[in-house]
């Protein structure tokens, strides 16, 4: 008798190597264990003390502290997977999570990459081809051509005029908030293009640029999707990630406040349609700018995101488990009709950094108090005595709350922040406490520029 996908799925792998560090390594390990899977943790020399190493079935040091020689070292990770007998690799976020060549190398080594196929990553990793794919699937995009900018200055000027100033120049291979430049008017257009092209060549290895309308007061809204290998896809509601500093998210929430279901519904369905068209597998996020009641696609993240917990708390779906099950070949166990989002959730990113200057702060955590209670979740890998290393991202914990309404969730976050103490290093907790007292934020009257302006006003006061 032929095997059903369900029967063969569990055979795809029983051991997962987690190619990441910090809070997300701990989070993925928990999901694996709950699914009855064995885990292999890896570390650099700086992370030998990682607590998730002690609870893993195997723990291997794969290289020196610098990420390029450890968490980004593809050969070392593949060797560790072979030595430890892993059948799959979970890349987490950052590092190699959106590296199509790595996804390909993992599959060529006979292992399962817990994520989409290398070709989906490649299409979505290039912002121009992503925009083209989205337009073809009927997803609304920011006004501007879905082709790379040519070299001819006159043609570039004509494109900018057609879009209308201000425009934004973006690197096709850009990421992490880099490789973008706003052009307010025509006289600085060519200079902006030359600078961004050079930056793109150096940082992303490709000089390819594109141009689109610069939206002046948008909110950043995103849609979470989950797809299996059998032609099923659902969206799990939306998030607002407008609270950004230097294009980096600081506070996220689900759902995005004040967006009527009949406005977001067609966008969610278009995202699902796009996934089906490109044969997408696993979890992903479609990022949009939202201005004057309209949505404009900016990019897709083909991986698990830092802010996935706010969607987990509102949808009740364990996104990491669902992602692993999809990679195992299981049929998605929910349909769109099963997805209901309830209540409101906030996430604060707790960073080891100075709350005024935002400079990273490394050192030993001498004292740690974490909040607990109904509707409070903390995702972290740190403990008292943990040494925060200067080598990596400054995220040390995520504080997540859930409550029936947005106002109640804000109150819960205030309480949770009041109950969080990290001694021995500086953190952004004082800044987050002040932000949750802000009136405009409480009223939901913010856009992507709000946090920077709020910081400027605070500094001036
Ligand atoms: P990255 O891949 O570097 O994160 P994105 O394309 O997701 O880049 O954009 C990051 C942020 O830059 C957005 O959240 C938004 O704040 C700003 N941004 C990007 N495109 C535009 C645009 N067309 N108009 C206004 N702001 C933009």
TrEMBL record:
Keywords: ATP-binding, Biotin, Ligase, Nucleotide-binding, Plasmid. Residues 131-328 form the ATP-grasp domain. It holds the Pfam family Biotin_carb_C. It comes from the Bacteria. Residues 12-456 form the Biotin carboxylation domain. InterPro entries: ATP-grasp, BC-like_N, Biotin_carboxylase_complex, Biotin_carboxylation_dom, Biotin_COase_C, CPAse_ATP-bd, PreATP-grasp_dom_sf, Rudment_hybrid_motif. This is Acetyl-CoA carboxylase biotin carboxylase subunit. It comes from Rhizobium leguminosarum.
């Amino acid at each position: 008798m032929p095997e059903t996908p369900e029967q063969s799925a569990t055979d795809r792998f029983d051991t997962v190597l987690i190619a990441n560090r910090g809070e997300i390594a701990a989070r993925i390990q928990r999901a694996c264990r709950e699914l009855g899977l064995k885990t292999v943790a890896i570390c650099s020399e700086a992370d030998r003390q990682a607590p998730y190493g002690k609870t893993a079935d195997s723990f291997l040091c794969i290289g020196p502290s610098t990420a390029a020689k450890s968490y980004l070292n593809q050969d070392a990770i593949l060797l560790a997977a072979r030595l430890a007998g892993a059948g799959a690799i979970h890349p987490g976020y950052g590092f190699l999570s959106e590296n199509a060549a790595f996804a390909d190398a993992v599959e060529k080594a006979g292992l399962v990459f817990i994520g989409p196929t290398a070709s989906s990553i490649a299409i979505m990793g290039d912002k121009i081809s992503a925009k083209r794919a989205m337009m073809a699937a009927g997803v609304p995009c920011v006004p501007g051509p879905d082709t790379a900018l040519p070299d001819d200055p006159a043609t570039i000027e004509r494109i900018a005029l057609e879009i209308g100033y201000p425009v934004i120049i973006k690197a096709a291979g850009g990421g992490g908030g880099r490789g973008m430049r706003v052009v307010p008017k025509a006289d600085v257009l060519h200079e902006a293009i030359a600078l961004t092209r050079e930056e793109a060549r150096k940082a992303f290895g490709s000089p390819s640029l594109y141009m689109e309308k610069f939206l002046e007061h948008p909110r950043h809204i995103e849609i979470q999707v989950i797809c299996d290998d059998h032609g099923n896809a659902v969206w799990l509601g939306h998030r607002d990630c407008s609270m950004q500093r230097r294009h980096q998210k600081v506070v996220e929430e689900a759902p995005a406040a004040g967006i009527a279901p009949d406005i977001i519904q067609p966008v969610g369905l278009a995202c699902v349609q796009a996934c089906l068209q490109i044969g997408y597998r696993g979890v992903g996020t479609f990022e949009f700018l939202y201005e004057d009641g309209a949505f404009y696609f900016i990019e897709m993240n083909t991986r698990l995101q830092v802010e996935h917990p706010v969607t987990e708390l509102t949808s009740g779906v364990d996104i990491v488990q669902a992602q692993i099950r999809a990679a195992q070949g299981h049929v998605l166990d929910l349909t769109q009709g099963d997805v209901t989002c309830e209540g409101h959730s906030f996430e604060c990113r707790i960073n080891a950094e100075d709350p005024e200057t935002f400079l990273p702060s490394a050192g030993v955590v001498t004292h740690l108090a974490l909040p607990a209670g109904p509707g409070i979740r903390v995702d972290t890998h740190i403990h008292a005595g943990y040494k925060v290393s200067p080598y990596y991202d400054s995220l040390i914990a995520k504080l997540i709350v859930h409550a029936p309404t947005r106002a109640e969730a804000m109150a819960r976050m205030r309480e949770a922040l009041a109950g969080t103490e990290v001694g021995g290093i500086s953190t952004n907790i004082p800044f987050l406490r002040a932000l949750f007292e802000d009136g405009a934020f409480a009223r939901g009257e913010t856009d992507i520029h709000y946090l920077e302006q709020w910081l400027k006003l605070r500094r001036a006061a």
